[in-house]
Amino acid sequence: MGPPEEEIRGLVADWIAKADLDFDAAVRLVAEERFRDIVAFHAQQAAQKYLKALLTRHQIEFPKTHVIRRLLILLGPVEPLIAEELDDANWLSPYGAELRYPAIVPKQFRATKYAPSNSHRRSATQ
Questions:
Q1: What does each C-alpha distance from 43 to 30, 59, 78, 115, 118 come to in angstroms?
Q2: Cα–Cα distance between 103 and 94 in angstroms, integer?
Q3: Mean pLDDT score across all residues of the chain
Q4: What's the predicted TM-score (pTM) here?
Q5: DSSP states of the chain
Q6: What does the pLDDT look like over 31-76, one tens digit per residue?
Q7: In this predicted structure, what is the pLDDT of residue 109?
Q8: Is the torsion defined by CA of 101, 36, 16, 57 positive or negative?
Q9: C-alpha Rg value of the chain to the nearest Å
C-alpha cells in the first residue's frame, strides 16, 4: 500500500512550487544575454522538477538525475502522450550539471564573450 493521497498531493505541490521558482527565475533573467547559461540551468531544473512532480503523482520512484530522458522513460508507461511530446526537452539535460562548473563549456557557449576563460583565474598557489 502506498502513501496516503494527502501526502502524495503535498509532495507533488512541493515539487511544483520548486519548479515554479526555477521557471520564474529563468523568465526574469532571460532578457539579459549575459545570464543565458543561468537561464538554461533554471529551465532544465524547472523541467526536471515538473516531471518529478508528475512521477510523484503516479507514485513512480525515480533516481537522482539531471537527465530528462531518464525521467520521461519512467513516465512513458503511465503518460505515453506526455512523455512523447516532451522528448525534445531532453536537450536541456546538459544544463542541469555541466554549466555549474566553469571547466565544462557546452559548444553553444564556446567562442562567445560569455564563455568562461582562463585569463581571469588565479593559480591555486598564489
A1: 10, 24, 24, 19, 27
A2: 14
A3: 84
A4: 0.77
A5: ----HHHHHHHHHHHHHHHHHHHHHHHHHTTSGGGHHHHHHHHHHHHHHHHHHHHHHTT----S---HHHHHHHHTTT-HHHHHHTGGGGGGGGGGTGGGSTT---GGGTTSTTS--STTPPPTT-
A6: 998 998 899 999 999 999 999 999 999 999 999 999 999 999 999 9
A7: 55
A8: negative
A9: 17
**106 CB neighbour count, 10 Å cutoff:** 13
Asked if 28 and 38 touch (Cβ cutoff 8 Å), the reply is: no
Is residue 32 within 8 A of residue 1, CB to CB? The reply is: no
Distance between first and last Cα of the chain? 59
Pick the CATH number of 5-109 from 3.90.550, 2.40.160, 1.20.120, 3.40.50: 1.20.120
Number of Cβ atoms within 10 Å of the Cβ of 93:
19
Cα dihedral angle (79, 89, 84, 7), rounded to 10 degrees? 0
- Structural domain boundaries in the chain: 5-109
* pLDDT number for residue 97: 81
- The letter for the amino acid at 16 is I
